[in-house]
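User: Fold this, then the next.

Assistant: Folding the first:
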Amino acid sequence: KQLAALGEVYVNDAFGTAHRAHASTEGVTRFLRPAVAGFLMQKELDYLGRALEAPQRPFVAVLGGAKISGKIDVITQLLGKVDRLLVGGAMMFTFLKAQGRPVGRSLVEDDRLDMAKSVLEQAKARGVELVLPVDCMASAAADGSAPGRVTALAGLGAEEMGVDIGPETVKLFAAKLHDARTVVWNGPMGVFEVPAFAAGTLGVARAMAELTGRGATTVVGGGDSVAAIQQADLAEKFTHLSTGGGASLEFLEGKVLPGVAALDAV
């Protein structure tokens, strides 16, 4: 009430905090009207919303990051909307192990193997092409303290872990992206903060940047993916880079964002 008494109009332009029901994002709007979205908030909701609700097709999602558990709601939501789903990052190894393939010491969520099998079955049932890597960068250490080598997945040693997708996978993903008209990307393809393990993430970023140049809509969920794109100096070559990591993830999951729900007009 004290905050609300200071103003006549409430404008929320902080998409990055819209998934949190805080005093400044949701509480103050109960006492201060009109409550509306700012231009950045509107742009975020337009691009993310359009990608999910009325995408030009083929619609391809690229998902990476460490854990399937953190992305399962996004995967489930996207399976009902996309034509293709490309999976990289450490979570690919949970899918590969679910298929009975070698994973060495790669990060695997053993308690999510059934979930991974279910996703593979759902994709097949819905006619969604779920594309997994064919090779990877292998190393004995994820922090870059040990050298890496490129190997087909079948050649991953028992003491090695996958730290990035390999060059053949970058080519495969680029081919699967080639005709896309809408692409949503969330999560890096490997441990991109270690320069030696960044090639996969940067390769996917370049493939998407080319698509933008050919008229496709390329939308990147915030966080690490955006950081990688900025690091590669490709920020100008994407249709939209989200400013909200957690908020964009929850939006892609189909959740209502409290900071958006609290507004009169968006």
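Now the next one, as you asked:
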Amino acid sequence: MGWLEAIVLGVVQGLTEFLPISSSAHQLIVGQLFFEGHDPGAAFTAVTQLGTETAVLIYFWRDIVRIIKHWALSLAGRLPHSDPDARMGWYVIVGSLPIGVLGLLFQDAIDSTLRNLWITVITLGGVGLLLGLADRMARTHRPKELTELSWRDAIIFGLAQACALIPGVSRSGGTISAGLFMGYSRPAAARYAFLLAIPAVFASGLFKLKDIGSDSCVAWGPTIVATLIAGAVGYAVIAWLLRYITTHTFTPFVVYRV
């Protein structure tokens, strides 16, 4: 992989990670355009996601610190377990289990079979239509907020996130769709999707670090550049998206996916 390709893929990762349009699908498609039919690889995608997830840590730093603090204090008995932030800590842990378990069980398929462009095409269109349906249904009732999150909902969110192991589904697209189907507001579903992704993305990215440099197409230098660019662009996208969805629907993303 050359430096130009790394820069372009870093920008693509940053632009698409948080929008419900699947960053892994875009990495796969754009990467194959550059490599004349060769996939840049699951390891490169996972590691560059460390950059965008670092943007989440920075953007939600105060919330994350407060959640961790209250969760730890509840374990020590210094805060009630019913504390909203303490419960959110548990919800993020429980919601992260499905993608962790399924990611380990189907690691080989994720790295090979599931990165087929026909599968990517089907999931881009299919999940796009589901997102459109969920968005339309969400307008018919009073939306729920994260203070109403339950154990059942956290597990459903987690299962939806696990579907993003398939390129084209979209981590944010899957979790936001699940949230809208369950009656959550767009900002609430998106916010929880961002928080829920932190453990899974960091675990996946750190696990895949060992594979960088083992393929002649993916060296350390370009990977680091792509990761840094992805983080910077991703931060701007988070800020824009959270403002956008307070007054707009997901229809443009549905059309784009299809």
